[in-house]
Amino acid sequence: MKLVMIIIASLWMSSCAATGTAGKEDKTTMAQKQADQANVCVVSDEVLRKTLSPEQYAVAVQGGTERPFANAYWNNHDEGIYVDVIDGTPLFSSHSKYDSGTGWPSFWEPLDKNALELIEDTSFGMRRVEVRSKSSGAHLGHVFTDGPEPTGLRYCMNSASLRFIPKTELEKAGLGQYVKLFEK
Protein backbone atom coordinates (compact mmCIF):
# COMPACT_ATOMS: atom_id res chain seq x y z
CA MET A 1 0.00 0.00 0.00
CA LYS A 2 2.82 2.37 0.89
CA LEU A 3 4.52 1.63 -2.44
CA VAL A 4 1.29 2.41 -4.32
CA MET A 5 0.98 5.76 -2.54
CA ILE A 6 4.61 6.63 -3.38
CA ILE A 7 4.05 5.79 -7.05
CA ILE A 8 0.85 7.86 -7.19
CA ALA A 9 2.54 10.81 -5.49
CA SER A 10 5.51 10.59 -7.88
CA LEU A 11 3.26 10.50 -10.94
CA TRP A 12 1.22 13.42 -9.64
CA MET A 13 4.32 15.53 -8.92
CA SER A 14 5.84 14.80 -12.32
CA SER A 15 2.59 15.75 -14.07
CA CYS A 16 2.50 19.03 -12.14
CA ALA A 17 6.08 19.77 -13.09
CA ALA A 18 5.36 19.04 -16.74
CA THR A 19 2.30 21.28 -16.68
CA GLY A 20 4.25 24.16 -15.19
CA THR A 21 6.88 24.17 -17.92
CA ALA A 22 4.80 23.36 -20.98
CA GLY A 23 4.14 26.98 -21.95
CA LYS A 24 7.73 28.10 -21.35
CA GLU A 25 9.31 25.82 -23.95
CA ASP A 26 7.00 26.84 -26.79
CA LYS A 27 7.32 30.49 -27.82
CA THR A 28 4.07 30.38 -29.80
CA THR A 29 1.18 31.36 -27.55
CA MET A 30 -2.16 29.57 -27.54
CA ALA A 31 -3.80 32.75 -28.83
CA GLN A 32 -1.34 32.90 -31.73
CA LYS A 33 -1.95 29.25 -32.62
CA GLN A 34 -5.72 29.80 -32.61
CA ALA A 35 -5.38 32.97 -34.68
CA ASP A 36 -3.08 31.25 -37.18
CA GLN A 37 -5.66 28.50 -37.69
CA ALA A 38 -8.52 30.97 -38.06
CA ASN A 39 -6.54 33.30 -40.37
CA VAL A 40 -7.06 36.38 -38.21
CA CYS A 41 -4.81 39.21 -37.09
CA VAL A 42 -2.13 38.07 -34.64
CA VAL A 43 -0.74 40.28 -31.90
CA SER A 44 2.85 39.36 -31.07
CA ASP A 45 3.65 37.81 -27.72
CA GLU A 46 5.95 40.76 -27.00
CA VAL A 47 3.11 43.26 -27.51
CA LEU A 48 0.70 41.15 -25.45
CA ARG A 49 3.15 40.99 -22.54
CA LYS A 50 3.56 44.78 -22.66
CA THR A 51 -0.13 45.67 -22.98
CA LEU A 52 -1.81 43.08 -20.75
CA SER A 53 -1.43 42.80 -16.99
CA PRO A 54 0.27 39.60 -15.78
CA GLU A 55 -3.14 38.19 -14.81
CA GLN A 56 -4.72 39.11 -18.15
CA TYR A 57 -1.81 37.46 -19.97
CA ALA A 58 -2.01 34.31 -17.82
CA VAL A 59 -5.75 33.96 -18.43
CA ALA A 60 -6.37 35.25 -21.97
CA VAL A 61 -3.14 34.08 -23.61
CA GLN A 62 -2.05 31.10 -21.54
CA GLY A 63 -5.55 29.75 -20.87
CA GLY A 64 -5.56 30.17 -17.09
CA THR A 65 -8.45 30.91 -14.76
CA GLU A 66 -8.78 33.77 -12.30
CA ARG A 67 -10.01 33.36 -8.75
CA PRO A 68 -13.78 33.45 -8.20
CA PHE A 69 -15.32 36.36 -6.26
CA ALA A 70 -12.01 38.28 -6.52
CA ASN A 71 -12.21 39.58 -10.08
CA ALA A 72 -13.30 42.83 -11.68
CA TYR A 73 -16.70 41.99 -13.16
CA TRP A 74 -18.37 39.15 -11.24
CA ASN A 75 -20.39 41.69 -9.25
CA ASN A 76 -20.62 44.47 -11.85
CA HIS A 77 -24.23 45.61 -12.29
CA ASP A 78 -23.59 48.58 -14.60
CA GLU A 79 -25.08 48.67 -18.10
CA GLY A 80 -22.66 48.28 -20.97
CA ILE A 81 -20.76 45.94 -23.25
CA TYR A 82 -17.99 43.46 -22.43
CA VAL A 83 -15.30 43.28 -25.11
CA ASP A 84 -12.27 41.09 -25.80
CA VAL A 85 -9.35 42.44 -23.75
CA ILE A 86 -6.92 41.81 -26.63
CA ASP A 87 -8.67 43.29 -29.66
CA GLY A 88 -11.86 44.97 -28.41
CA THR A 89 -14.34 42.72 -30.19
CA PRO A 90 -17.80 43.11 -28.57
CA LEU A 91 -18.71 39.82 -26.88
CA PHE A 92 -21.43 40.21 -24.22
CA SER A 93 -24.02 42.74 -23.04
CA SER A 94 -24.91 43.51 -19.45
CA HIS A 95 -28.49 42.60 -20.46
CA SER A 96 -27.56 38.92 -20.65
CA LYS A 97 -25.41 38.97 -17.49
CA TYR A 98 -26.75 37.29 -14.38
CA ASP A 99 -25.59 36.15 -10.96
CA SER A 100 -24.79 32.45 -11.32
CA GLY A 101 -23.37 32.23 -7.81
CA THR A 102 -20.03 31.01 -9.19
CA GLY A 103 -18.00 34.17 -8.59
CA TRP A 104 -17.27 34.75 -12.28
CA PRO A 105 -19.20 36.99 -14.67
CA SER A 106 -21.85 34.81 -16.28
CA PHE A 107 -24.01 35.46 -19.33
CA TRP A 108 -26.88 33.50 -20.87
CA GLU A 109 -26.01 34.56 -24.43
CA PRO A 110 -23.27 36.39 -26.37
CA LEU A 111 -23.90 39.48 -28.48
CA ASP A 112 -22.90 37.46 -31.55
CA LYS A 113 -22.31 33.72 -31.22
CA ASN A 114 -20.17 33.90 -34.39
CA ALA A 115 -17.63 35.97 -32.43
CA LEU A 116 -16.92 32.94 -30.24
CA GLU A 117 -15.15 29.67 -30.86
CA LEU A 118 -16.27 26.67 -28.82
CA ILE A 119 -13.68 23.95 -28.21
CA GLU A 120 -14.04 20.64 -26.37
CA ASP A 121 -11.89 20.79 -23.22
CA THR A 122 -11.02 17.56 -21.41
CA SER A 123 -8.35 19.01 -19.11
CA PHE A 124 -8.25 18.18 -15.40
CA GLY A 125 -10.27 15.01 -15.97
CA MET A 126 -13.42 17.00 -16.85
CA ARG A 127 -15.49 17.38 -20.00
CA ARG A 128 -16.22 21.03 -20.67
CA VAL A 129 -16.60 23.40 -23.58
CA GLU A 130 -13.97 26.14 -23.70
CA VAL A 131 -14.95 29.54 -25.09
CA ARG A 132 -12.39 31.55 -27.07
CA SER A 133 -12.67 34.82 -28.92
CA LYS A 134 -12.70 33.94 -32.61
CA SER A 135 -10.93 37.17 -33.57
CA SER A 136 -7.98 37.12 -31.14
CA GLY A 137 -7.93 33.53 -29.90
CA ALA A 138 -8.16 34.75 -26.30
CA HIS A 139 -9.30 32.18 -23.74
CA LEU A 140 -12.51 33.61 -22.26
CA GLY A 141 -13.83 30.80 -20.06
CA HIS A 142 -16.28 27.93 -20.50
CA VAL A 143 -19.93 27.45 -21.42
CA PHE A 144 -22.21 25.11 -19.47
CA THR A 145 -25.78 23.90 -19.98
CA ASP A 146 -27.03 24.91 -16.52
CA GLY A 147 -27.96 28.51 -17.30
CA PRO A 148 -31.30 30.33 -17.18
CA GLU A 149 -33.95 30.56 -19.88
CA PRO A 150 -34.26 31.43 -22.68
CA THR A 151 -31.01 29.66 -23.70
CA GLY A 152 -30.28 27.37 -20.76
CA LEU A 153 -26.61 28.30 -21.19
CA ARG A 154 -24.10 29.76 -18.74
CA TYR A 155 -21.14 31.46 -20.37
CA CYS A 156 -18.82 31.52 -17.35
CA MET A 157 -16.18 34.09 -18.32
CA ASN A 158 -12.96 35.37 -16.80
CA SER A 159 -12.95 39.12 -16.06
CA ALA A 160 -9.26 39.16 -17.00
CA SER A 161 -10.19 38.31 -20.61
CA LEU A 162 -12.77 41.07 -20.82
CA ARG A 163 -12.90 44.85 -20.76
CA PHE A 164 -16.13 46.59 -19.77
CA ILE A 165 -17.36 49.62 -21.73
CA PRO A 166 -20.15 51.46 -19.83
CA LYS A 167 -23.16 52.45 -21.94
CA THR A 168 -22.25 56.14 -21.52
CA GLU A 169 -18.88 55.51 -23.24
CA LEU A 170 -20.01 53.30 -26.12
CA GLU A 171 -20.08 56.12 -28.70
CA LYS A 172 -16.60 57.29 -27.68
CA ALA A 173 -15.30 53.70 -27.93
CA GLY A 174 -16.63 53.36 -31.49
CA LEU A 175 -19.44 51.05 -30.37
CA GLY A 176 -22.35 53.40 -30.97
CA GLN A 177 -24.35 50.67 -32.68
CA TYR A 178 -24.87 49.08 -29.24
CA VAL A 179 -26.39 52.18 -27.59
CA LYS A 180 -29.87 51.12 -28.79
CA LEU A 181 -29.64 48.02 -26.56
CA PHE A 182 -29.92 50.30 -23.54
CA GLU A 183 -32.70 52.61 -24.75
CA LYS A 184 -35.96 52.01 -22.95
Element string (H = helix, E = strand)? HHHHEEEEEEEEE
Radius of gyration: 18 Å
The average pLDDT is 84
Number of strand elements: 9
Tell me about this structure.
InterPro entries: Met_Sox_Rdtase_MsrB, Met_Sox_Rdtase_MsrB_dom, Mss4-like_sf. The protein has 184 residues and is of the alpha+beta class. Helix content is 26%, strand content 22%. The chain has a single domain, classed as Metal Binding Protein, Guanine Nucleotide Exchange Factor, Chain A. The strands form 2 sheets. A 6-stranded antiparallel beta sheet has the order 3-4-8-7-6-5. It has a 3-stranded antiparallel beta sheet with strand order 2-1-9, with no helix packed on it. Strand 1 and strand 2 form a beta hairpin. The longest helix has 24 residues. The radius of gyration is 18 Å and the shape is globular. The N terminus is likely disordered.
